[in-house]
TrEMBL record:
Keywords: Transferase. It holds the Pfam family Acetyltransf_1. This is GNAT family N-acetyltransferase. GO terms for molecular function: acyltransferase activity, transferring groups other than amino-acyl groups. Residues 3-163 form the N-acetyltransferase domain. PROSITE patterns: GNAT. The keyword Ligase does not apply. The lineage of its organism: Bacteria, Pseudomonadati, Pseudomonadota, Gammaproteobacteria, Lysobacterales. The keyword Transferase applies.
Amino acid sequence: MALAIRDVREHDLDAVLALNNEAGTGILATDRARLRHLYEIAHYFRVAEQEGRIVGFLIAMRQEADYNSPNFRWFQAHYESFVYIDRIVIEQTMRGHGLGRIFYCDVQSYAEVRVPLLTCEVFLEPRNDQTVLFHGTMGFQEVGQQTMGQDGPKVSLLARELPSFPFVRERYLEQDGLPDVAWLAERQRPADLRGVSA
């Protein structure tokens, strides 16, 4: 019953796609091509695996990502530096056991040594008080609202300041950079490896 949080692998994508599209109204359905694009551009893309089965995932990216989501673009227009949580999905049988909090703590540990803000959105239509409350207890504050497209749902745009970042910036990022240790390494994205010969 051990649970592992690890970087996604290419062979996980079919399971991730199925999990995404079974998640219900709180997550936008996607297709193989769009998920492949997320796989290539995401700075953070981790899965939860239990007994060889993918039971959750979280996808996030930094401000320079080539991503046309209207919510991501809103944050690009308003903030210089951030990590944006695009989506988190937890399998139905695993909900309510703290896996969402584990993912949020993990993505925060990625973000807080790189940027001052962690951002995301939650749907306000249909109303989901559980999701809104979850983000509030994780320290997020509403910084805006918008409607996705002409007929899309209304969303609340959320941000959380990362209090560790000023220390990391002054001590490391403005000096010699982050230490060369495994837990601080960037994800090796397929987009990063294009044009690199062995």
